[in-house]
Amino acid sequence: MNTVGSPRYAPEWLALREGADTRARSEQLLGPLRDFLAQTTAPGGLLTVHDLGCGTGSMGRWLASRLNGPQRWFMHDRDPALLENIAARMPREAADGSPLEVVPQQRDITRLTGDDLAGTSLVTASALLDLLTADELESLAASCASAGCAVLLALSVEGHVEIEPSDPLDKEFAAAFDAHQRRTDGGRRLLGPDAVEAATAAFERNGATVLTHSSPWRLGPDDSGLTAQWLLGWVAAACAQEPSLEASSEEYMRRRLDACEAGALRAVVHHSDLLALPANPAGTAAT
Q1: Helical packing angle, 224-241 and 11-24, nearest 10°
Q2: Cα separation of 195 and 186, whole Å?
Q3: Is the pLDDT assigned to residue 109 strictly greater than 50?
Q4: Is 93 in a helix, a strand, or coil?
Q5: 71-84 pLDDT, tens digit each
Q6: How many Å apart are CA 214 and CA 170, to the nearest integer?
Q7: For 99, 105, 163, 173, which has the most beta carbons within 10 A of its beta carbon?
Q8: pLDDT of 192-220, one tens digit each?
Q9: Which of 101, 104, 24, 98 lies closest to 67, judged by CA?
């Protein structure tokens, strides 16, 4: 994903992680979401979806083909390069064969208001929450409540990583990485691993019913390319936060990448998915 104040993500990294993202996202939250949409959308009515920080459209590719009915997807990202040809990367049809329209929008998603979301059925995002501040999250929750739309936010980091075989330095790098996720960036204090708890409270304060489900990456020998790139980024962020780790990082990475190349390394990177269903939905299905 991409939001104002966050780094720009290379399409190559987004493509590399898409398989793990697809496996991790919670199918268990789709039942309550489908029920909500069926109750609030007239038969054959248009589902309007806003995908925040859409990147190359991974969340849309996963979700659009799992929902029924005609759909219009507004794809929001600050990076125009990621929005180029995004319609061609999305599914052509919904799960039941209904048509799907894609509208790219380059904008600051932290400034969305209830008026911007008027008529929206669903707001969704992937790997977004941990990059928001508490104020930005509160504003998003209030805007979604005002619009009366459902919200599905996938793959928010939990601050918990398991690596096998273990290494004596794992805990030090993990703690530094988590601190980096909570850093102040351009005057913005990021939520990082506190995001799911904060989001649950924010949406509940705005009257929503909130459901969460774990959505971990489970990386094994078949994911060696992703695991290696994730490790490089994980260690780099940890060292940026705690420069004292720099001296031990090269040897640590050598051990880890050797194990990864040998197919002996496994990692579980814990995330959570969150579904918020409004107390006052914007629409009701025709009877």
Answers
A1: 110
A2: 18
A3: yes
A4: strand
A5: 999 999 999 999 99
A6: 22
A7: 173
A8: 999 999 999 999 999 999 999 999 999 99
A9: 98
Tokens 């979604």 correspond to 144
| Token output for 196 | 């799911």
Inter-axis angle of helices 224-241 and 170-181, to 10 degrees?
70
Rounded-to-integer distance, Cα 264 and Cα 252, Å? 15
Q: By C-alpha distance, which of 206, 79, 83 is closest to 137?
A: 206
The answer to whether 177 and 281 have CB atoms below 8 angstroms apart is no
Tokens standing for 276? 């918020």
**Cβ proximity of 8 and 79 under 8 Å:** yes
Task: Please say if the pLDDT value at position 285 is more than 90.
Answer: no
- Residue showing tokens 């991790």: 24
The residue among 130, 158, 137, 170 whose CA lies nearest residue 215 is 158
Any idea how long the chain is?
287
**pLDDT for residue 89 is more than 60:** yes
Give me 285's structure tokens: 């299905």
- The pTM of this model reads 0.94
Half-sphere exposure of 59 (CA within 13 A, CB side): 28
Angle at 14 between CA 13 and CA 18, to 5 degrees: 120
Please tell me the distance from the alpha carbon of residue 73 to that of residue 76, in angstroms, as a whole number.
9
Q: Are 55 and 14 in contact (CB under 8 A)?
A: yes
